[in-house]
Design brief:
Length: 523
């Protein structure tokens, strides 16, 4: 983009913001004055001079805001028309903003900050829209918490309150880097408030979406505390960030964990420590990679696990070696599901079988059962891509073995999950073998799982199981022509749809397609 063209964008953006402010319009109002609406995130970037725009859009803004028509001549003269004015990221940002507007639990957030945060989240290319919105909500909550801290003088000193109010004001204008600088300077000047400022700065790192800054801050704090074993202390801190990111679905926390694991590698003094840090790195990369559309993180996770296996010899630490093999299998299996072919899946199966050589039932029964379940899942996907039924039969055997230790009275949800996995595999086997007995086994497995996967406890898992039963019933109808089956399947799908409508657009679309199939059979 030529320099003169950038100047045109910046000057025009200022003119748009000035005219909009004089009219007392929000960005929403301006967006609605233009047909078709470009969305308020797009217009926010126009006002900042960050976005190329076409003369057509310039003309619409001139008409809506009664701007000087000389602007259209300047844009035509400089030829700053973009190839693709509204990008997929713009659309994703607008979707997130619409979700916030419809969510009564979303904290009140200044418009500029809300748009900036939504744009940051959409840039991460989440594979699941629900996960993207969950991430945005966590950022909004942190911003709201910082604002509240500045409004509660009883909990802070006057000086700290003034600092936090300044931070909040800058955040409201989406000047998040400037707000972070205020906190950094305050930390240097105010040792008495260091603890509160440290946590406020971590929150600001989250608000401005800078995981690398948060990781550096955490490591610097650990060094100041001077633990007896810095590597061990960093490992415990990694665990906190990793588990929070994994269990609460927070990608930011996983990104911090990745950076802390890399810091751990730099601190490692022995092969055992290097192996542990590589395994930590692999875990964080794998969980984050499973939530993203690309495969880069998962590929990095595989590489980290392979390096961990080099640094943690089997003879020296057989159980840790088996853990890493299992983790490697998980990453390979996830890649195998995403990629065509069977190479990754075959590698995953091999990794699980190696893990089972050390994670034996008599030594670590729960780990043994978990790996049997993982093996069954990889074999199922592999069997779906191959002809014949050998892999699928092996998968059913692996699930049955897992159920020997993952018993209902011990781990009820794991027991139910394994049953649903086995049900899906049995359903595929039944379809290939054209065997009503296999279909009956599949339906029986799903019915058992529903004893624990109750709608009032785990609604999403309940809906998925109900949908799987319906799909199995539709497959069975193709074999038996039992007229009751399509109606039963339709009723189950409609029940599952009620949950998906509130939870997942992706699953809702799949469910709607199955509903259409069921209705077609009833027509």
């Amino acid at each position: 983009m030529p320099k003169v063209a950038q100047d045109v964008r910046v000057e025009f953006g200022r003119a748009v913001k000035r005219a909009r402010s004089l009219k007392g319009w929000t960005l929403d109002r301006l967006a609605n004055e233009i047909t078709p609406s470009p969305g308020k995130s797009f217009l926010s970037n126009v006002e900042k001079g960050h976005r190329s725009i076409s003369p057509v859009t310039v003309g619409k803004l001139i008409a809506a805001l009664k701007l000087d028509e000389v602007w259209i001549d300047r844009f035509l003269l400089e030829d700053v028309s973009p190839e693709d004015e509204i990008t997929p990221q713009d659309r994703a940002t607008e979707t997130l903003l619409a979700q916030v507007a419809a969510d009564a639990t979303a904290p009140p957030t200044a418009e500029a900050l809300l748009i900036g945060l939504a744009a940051d989240v959409s840039a991460k290319h989440f594979s699941d829209p629900l996960a993207a919105y969950h991430e945005l909500k966590s950022f909004l909550d942190e911003a709201a918490s910082l604002k509240a801290m500045g409004q509660l003088p009883s909990n802070t000193s006057d000086q700290l309150q003034m600092i936090l109010q300044r931070v909040s004001a800058l955040n409201d204008e989406d000047q998040r880097e400037e707000a972070a600088e205020v906190l950094e300077q305050a930390i240097l000047r105010n040792q008495a408030e260091a603890e509160a400022l440290y946590h406020a700065a971590l929150q600001q790192d989250r608000v401005r979406n800078k995981p690398e800054a948060a990781a550096q801050r955490v490591l610097a704090r650990l060094r100041l505390e001077g633990p007896e074993d810095l590597f061990e202390a960093l490992g415990e801190t990694f665990k906190e960030w990793y588990e929070r990111g994994r269990d609460k679905g927070l990608s930011f926390d996983l990104e911090v964990a990745i950076r802390l694991a890399r810091d751990g590698l730099a601190l490692a003094r022995t092969a055992t420590q290097r192996g542990a840090a590589q395994n930590d790195l692999g875990m964080a990369l794998a969980v984050l990679g499973s939530r993203e559309t690309g495969n880069e993180r998962l590929t990095e996770a595989v590489a980290a696990y392979r390096l961990a296996l080099q640094d943690a010899p089997r003879k020296a630490e057989p159980l840790n070696w088996a853990m890493t093999q299992n983790n490697l299998g998980n990453a390979l299996a996830e890649l195998g599901v995403r990629e065509t072919g069977t190479e990754r899946l075959i590698e995953a199966v091999a990794a699980y079988r190696l893990a089972l050589q050390e994670w034996r039932r008599e030594i670590v029964p729960q780990n043994w059962a978990m790996t049997q379940n993982n093996l069954g899942t990889a074999l199922t996907v592999l069997g779906q891509r191959e002809t014949g039924t050998e892999r699928l039969t092996e998968a059913v055997t692996a699930y049955r073995l897992a159920l020997q230790e993952w018993r209902r009275e011990v781990v009820p949800l794991d027991w139910a999950m394994t049953l649903t996995n086995m049900g899906a595999t049995l359903s595929e086997l039944a379809k290939r073998e054209q065997d009503p007995t296999r279909f009956a086994e599949a339906l029986a497995a799903y019915d058992l799982a529903l004893q624990e996967l109750r709608r009032e406890v785990v609604p999403f898992s309940w809906a998925q199981t109900f949908e799987n039963i319906a799909l199995t019933e539709l497959k069975l109808f193709a074999l038996t022509a039992d007229p009751a089956l399509p109606q039963q399947a339709l009723e189950r799908l409609l029940a599952a749809r009620e949950v998906y409508a509130e939870a997942s657009p992706y699953h809702l679309a799949k469910c709607d397609a199955a509903i259409a199939d069921a209705r077609a059979l009833l027509a």
